Amino acid sequence: MMNRRQMGGAMLAAGAAAALPVRAADGIWDASGDVRRAGGVLHWRSIGQQGALPPLVLLHMLGGWSDDWRDVARILGKDRRVIAFDLPGHGLSHWDGAPPQVQSVQETAGLIAGALTELGIAQADFAGMSLGGCVAVALAAAMPERVRRLVLPSCALGTGRTWAEIVAREADQVRTGMFSAAGDPLPTGPDVLRKVFGLRDAERIAAEQNASRKAAGRWIRPQERGVGLTDFTVLLGRISAPALLIYGGRDTFFPPFRPIAEAALRDHRTVVLKQSGGFPVQDDPVPTAAVVAQFLAG
Questions:
Q1: 9 Cβ contact list (under 8 Å, min separation 6)
Q2: φ, ψ of residue 115 in degrees (nearest 5)
Q3: Of 76, 131, 199, 229, which is least packed with CB atoms within 10 Å of its CB?
Q4: Alpha helical stretches, state H, the chain
Q5: CB proximity list for 237: less than 8 A, separation 6 or greater
Q6: d(CA 222, CA 129)
Q7: What pLDDT score was predicted for residue 38?
Q8: What is the three-class DSSP state of 246?
């Protein structure tokens, strides 16, 4: 007869088996699968085999999808298992019913942690850009035992906004043509990506971003509100894992958040990729992968 510990182990093994790859993934990915969480399904893709190094979990930007990381994953997956998630409502992750008014970063972090438990992963390295980095910060702050090292390229880790400020910002986004009045993301051209984020491959990235934003639809606003309402100085101060901050030298959007993150983190280093823009994961994957690999090996 099983004791409670044996029964718990059997249940975890059964959950991991249920979340095994369900089909070969597109492009560079070796495998993919779905993990059902409360009210929805998280989709993941992976490349590489588990070896001596811990797995690396990749989380994408707001309005993006797991494929944002594909070129970095291709490099880092040569000597470890790399797993990229589609965040709730993004990519191939889907939820029942309408999106909530606010999706907090803590809530999303719990969903990712639960999915990793079902995949049999107790601890990993994490890398997240923009929204993905904010979620990784929340996870590292709440569950330090789950995070060995933390990589944060281009993250808006601010001190939090009021609800009135968020409403005003969303009204501006409607006026400037980023969203419809109903909250649907609208296509944007490459000019903004060049001017604000300093991207070199703006044409390609704008086209892909329009596709990923369309897939995320009305899930973008709730996630953006969750980030905006969060005072990340509190969460960053709770993180014990070593952290790497990455910024692009050509970017004008994310660097103003750098002093906030550096002042709040206990153990960090900062790298500025001088020739990169604000989306180094997509626009400059080779040097981005190099600094990430060096940090994770340290």
A1: none
A2: -65, -40
A3: 229
A4: 4-18, 70-76, 105-118, 131-142, 163-175, 190-197, 202-216, 220-228, 232-237, 258-264, 280-283, 285-297
A5: 264, 265, 266
A6: 17
A7: 86
A8: strand
Q: How far is the C-alpha of 226 from the C-alpha of 84, rounded, in Å?
A: 21
pLDDT (0 to 100) of residue 150: 98
Cα(296)–Cα(298) distance, integer angstroms? 5
Token match 């309402």: residue?
A: 229
- Which domains are seen in the chain, by residue range? 45-297 (3.40.50.1820)
Question: Is there a contact between 208 and 281 (Cβ–Cβ < 8 Å)?
Answer: no
CA 202 to CA 191: how far, in whole Å?
8
Contact 75, 116 (CB under 8 A): no
3-state secondary structure of 240: coil
Task: Give Dmax over CA atoms of the chain in angstroms.
Answer: 66
Which pTM was predicted? 0.91
Whether the per-residue pLDDT at 76 is higher than 50: the answer is: yes
Contact 139, 146 (CB under 8 A): yes
User: Looking at residues 255-281, what average pLDDT do you find?
Assistant: 98
Mean pLDDT rounded to a whole number for the chain = 92
Give yes or no for a contact between 44 and 83, defined as CB atoms under 8 angstroms apart.
Answer: yes
